[in-house]
Amino acid sequence: MDRNKLIADIVTLLQASTMEPKEKAMWLILIPQMEETDLVKLQDVLQKEVSAMTNLYLETIAEQQ
Amino acid sequence: MGLLESGIQMFSSFLGKKGETPSSSPATGNPFFDMLLNMKNGEKAKAATEIKENAEKSRESLFGEVWESILARYFPNVSKLMDLSSMVGITQKDPEAVPWQNEFENITALTLFIPDSFLHHITDWFANSETFLKVLENWPIKGKEMADKIRNGKDPDDVINAIRMMHQDMITGKVSFDKVYGAL
Fold first, then answer.
1. Hey, what long-range contacts does B100-105 have (CB within 8 A, 24 or more apart)?
2. Which of A53, A57, A64 to mutate to test the interface with B (most CBs of B within 10 A)?
């Protein structure tokens, strides 16, 4: 995957993650120094977390309706 | 109270079941996820906390790898001292990805105390090897910079630092020789 596209994807996912702002800032600083394999791992971890939280949110709404 | 906060509070009470009050979980900066995390005694809050904790564990493990890689590239002396401190038992040894990993890291870390005049006998072979320098040049992040430094100075420490960086990337599977040779 194109490195810039990968980083753009991670930055978007970071905003949606439950991590504290300090950790978000830390990853934003580390990202330019990270190798592609690590970037892919980070993207995967974030994607899993955000998808799981979004599903939970949708389930909660469905139960209330 | 701002419009956003009052909206969030209203939505929280909508999401929460009767008798559930918000707990004091720290804010994540994401209002919707904060609501899920703050629903007290709810199954959903438990599930949300589990997702958050699992993600934290995964990121922590990834951070360890990224940090080692950054140390090897930008702070090689600190990286060597950390290896030495694990060798003498001050800090915990890293779990080995390959059987000789810690031995290799400890031996190369010990070069901090070996005079350059001794090290030259070993490192000059690398510093004069165009193949080694070509491979290093194509190494991701800082590879070219390190190769230029070795070409210009032939400093034994630079050679050791480059070898340590390459070793670290190889054992963690971040870089494969195919990828580097492919770029040659």
1. B101/B171, B104/B167, B105/B164, B105/B167, B105/B168
2. A53
